[in-house]
Design goal:
By secondary structure, the chain is an alpha/beta fold. It is built from 8 helices and 5 strands; from the N terminus they run αβααβαββααβαα. Strands 2-1-4-3-5 form a 5-stranded parallel β-sheet. The radius of gyration is 18 Å and the shape is globular. The protein starts with a helix and ends in a 5-residue tail after the last helix. It binds zinc ion (ZN). Zinc ion (ZN) binds next to loops.
């Protein structure tokens, strides 16, 4: 039996990628103050260069759900319901969408009292597909929005569809969390951002056909 080829095809249980492209070495566990919900567009699932799965595997207590148009009841539950294992059953959940203001919606600015926990909702998709996800899910349009203030330049240079001024899902999320946690432990996302640099390097090596 060609054991080597079947071993190559076998996928990692944790990151669900082929063993040969496993990204688990880059997982960098961080416990954010806020809850994180990643809504991943189906086209991102097989996208080797996508950072949404690495983000979700690193952020403890986060959830990742794949879809483009979500069932209303399911989305309601993801946004406002109590998550399994959550330690705050009575508190009202406040979901906030990480998305730039587009001018068409007048969403209230996000004010975060020191101890309040938010549920940061992240669309893991290309810019085009994220707009489609918003269009298809009016409940997402109605959420208050958080946009990044003075985001640093992206280290993400491996996706052609990616605008140079646009951060990867992982980078945008880490900067958003650090922004929300200002004055607390801003530095805690640095190790994950550094691990992400390693991931980018690995993907770039694969792309050039010379994985080490
Ligand atoms: Zn893996």
């Amino acid at each position: 039996m060609p054991l080597t080829s079947s071993a190559r095809r076998a996928s990692c249980e944790r990151c669900q990628r082929p063993q040969s492209a496993c990204i688990c070495q880059w997982i960098c566990p961080v416990t954010p103050h806020h809850q994180v919900l990643v809504l991943q567009h189906p086209l991102e699932v097989k996208q080797a260069k996508g950072s949404g799965r690495l983000l979700q595997l690193s952020l403890q207590g986060s959830q990742l759900v794949v879809g483009e148009q979500f069932d209303v009841a399911q989305l309601q539950d993801l946004l406002f319901g109590v998550w399994p294992g959550a330690d705050q059953p009575v508190e009202r959940v406040q979901p906030v969408l990480l998305y730039p203001e587009t001018g068409q919606t007048a969403s209230p600015p996000v004010m975060v009292p020191a101890q309040q926990r938010l549920r940061l909702v992240i669309l893991d998709a290309t810019w085009r597909k994220s707009r489609k996800m918003l269009y298809l899910n009016p409940m997402l349009q109605q959420l208050p929005r958080l946009s990044l203030q003075n985001p640093p330049p992206s280290h993400y240079r491996i996706r052609k569809a990616h605008r140079p001024d646009q951060l990867s899902t992982l980078e945008a999320s880490c900067h958003a969390l650090a922004q929300l946690e200002q004055g607390q432990e801003k530095e805690r996302y640095l190790p994950l951002l550094q691990a992400f640099d390693g991931f980018v390097g690995q993907q770039a090596a694969y792309a050039s056909g010379s994985p080490d």
